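Structure tokens please, single chain.
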Amino acid sequence: MSLIIDGESLTTEDLVRVARRNAEVTLADHAAQRMQRSRAVVEAALKDGKVVYGVNTGFGELASVSVSKEDLARLQVNLVRSHSAGVGDPFPLEVVRGMMLLRANALAKGYSGVRVEVVQTLLHMLNRGVTPVVPQQGSVGSSGDLAPLAHMALVMIGEGTAVYQGAVLEGGLAMKKAKIHSLVLEAKEGVAIINGTQAMTALGALVAHDALGLVRDSCVAAAMSLEALRGTRTAFDGRIHATRPHEGQQDVAEVMLSILGDSEINQSHADCGKVQDAYSLRCIPQVLGASLDTIRYVQSIVETEINSATDNPLVFSDEGEVVSGGNFHGQPIALAMDFLSIALSEMANISERRVNRLVNPHLSGLPPFLTTEGGLESGLMIAQYTAAALVSENKTLSHPASVDSIPTSADQEDHVSMGTIAARKCRQVLENSKRVIAIEYMAAAQGVDLLAPLKASRPLLAAHQCLRKKVHMLEDDRPLSPDISAIVELMESGEIVNEVQSVTGSLLED
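Here you go.
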């Protein structure tokens, strides 16, 4: 089913469908009509000889320089070429596809004064698989993501570099092979394409989407750890969480109870005399719940941004006015991404503490490092080292990018957001955190194995069986990196959570 964009109703799930699953995209008729009205205002201003920033002037500090009518098209091409100054590894293709969709959706709002052909060019590229090669570094997040969007725009005009059918090609050749006419820019269109927050927002939207999935896996892994460590379920009693009614905390406590249920392992220590567990077990709802609330907040910020007009100047067709402002400033996304990095880091932080408890015989009551031949075998000793290293790296990455600002454009742009840096860091924190949770899954599953013949709860048995299809119980030392990668793949596919939900029903609402 194709997606129809109108600048107003795009969702994060829509973005995921296009970025990752190549859903077809079309432009709503009423959005095209809005764009035409907006374009008419620009053309009228040019006809009347008005001086309008970005239409017939230079940019940034050069805004006071007027450009002759004969040079307007050249002005836009020069802008795209000069701003294509990005460096470093390219963004993943899914991020670039997301960026293209978001830019098309923003232009479709009808406040940018561009022709319908501009959006149609982006949609043809999405639908026919022409994806610009966009370097990750070079954006300060105001005026938006200038360099990344300029590299995208280069391919639109038949220049730059693109990926088409798995090959990296010169942009014009990729467009030709895909039977897409390269865009010939007209007045204002270059600045409208490159002036926005779509690189940071596309990346942020994908990270926020994946973060919610990671909460589900974190709950399942934590429950399996608690089972292996023979912890108590009393800390998840709904009455406790009703007295401190944070939504995320209550939701996680409910999920933990649904996963744990009753089990032979639980019954085996019913009279053990233990009153309460360590914080990494007892406070799972409080910690994961706070991260869940943060993720939901970030998703709300992203949902607003992906349906916003973020270029400059904006065209208000009802009043026939072109107005300069600052909607390109990435501060809302910058702060949200920094906050999300912290939330993800804490999910990994508490997970690593449970891994440590699992491998430490003085805390777990299980064999040292979860191997039956400690000394001869090292078991999961170094897996915990890896988790510790990833958690430590996350702490460094969680220093906020948004608190920094370096003036640009001769101090015309004297406060910038660094939002794209915040989003890039957040993506790395997400990847690190996935691997930490994968290590917890590996250690917790091993712990459950070592408690045999006692069985875990039905939902955890389903998760355990899913894990064991890809990663066998560790009976003799072997390289663990492939096991960690295999578990990450299971997490990314949603297989483990889906197996649990086949028993429990939905764990968390989106």
